[in-house]
Give the backbone structure.
Amino acid sequence: MTKDAPMVEEITDFEVLEIALRELAIEKGLFTAEDHRRYTEFAEGMGPTPASRFVAKAWTDPAFKKRALEDPIAASLEVGIDWLNPTGFGTPSDFTALHVLEDRPTLHHVVTCTLCSCYPRPILGNSPEWYRTPNYRRRIVRTPRQVLAEFGLFLSPEVEIRVEDSNSKHRFLVLPVRPAGTEGWSEEQLAAIVTRDCMIGVALPKPGVTTNVARTVHPAAEPLEGHSAGK
Amino acid sequence: MADTTVRVKPTPDVTTVRVKSLEQLVKRGQVWSRMAKKYGVTNPVPPWKSSLDGICDALNEYATVLPLLTRRHEEDRLSEHQYAELPFPESQLVSLAHSLIARGVIDETDLVNRMAAIRTRLESCT
């Protein structure tokens, strides 16, 4: 007999709040129950796997890499992602132009969204918490080398860093340089080391590393003028 | 001659409004990180997170009462100030509730009553 997985055996205030908000919003006609069901299913089905496959395929197939750089929306279809209709019923906040940013040994890309938290969700899943924070969004554009070092990514001075700012129409995916030591690897083996963080640009793929680094989220020590409550 | 000037009512800064029922909820501190630890659950996010994402996407689709950028900017400000003690994604949920209540889209009393009814409903099955 198998033991049941542990579960939270209390009904929490936050669980109740989420249900109450949803029910009242539906009753007020802000959206329908069907809209909500479909978007929730979309949220549950998203993840970084298609993007990892996209990068691994670009590393192993020069013709795919060419297509990936020239027309990433079309190339995404080859890993099962239809950007023009990712949910089967439309996602206005994700309808977009996808751009693939190819790293070189002396050029590194990193992605942010200074306005909010735009992210290539259909292919990369939900953004991590730190990506949403004003702290990351404000600092990565000002001091990218320092912020990358805080992620454990120390780039030598001769490596140029380009920060790409996402918006409601344009989303970005970093195509890192294939690391040494992966010669002869299969697409599947390669995809395993292409983590979410590598495709945002805060990490580099490395043989043996298949998970993202847990990162503590800090509030901004010096919030921008006019951005604090009450002003 | 008729005055045809279009006067746009300035959007109130809802992040300065206090919502007492949400403040009380925050004080009770049933955040996922604590509850998961208490019961030995390893899921990094609470089970209601994908439903919350569904709410946000559905609101974005119509963008009438709370456009995406407005919602995200208010979430940033509220998460850094009024609800700074809340972790994510509780901060996202409470900020969304705050934005809707402070705008008058959802009435605070209605929300409190609905929460009580939902809790009764859920607990009747345990």
Notes: The beta strands of chain A are 97-102, 107-112, 160-165, 170-175. Residues 117 and 132 of chain A are 5 Å apart (CA to CA).
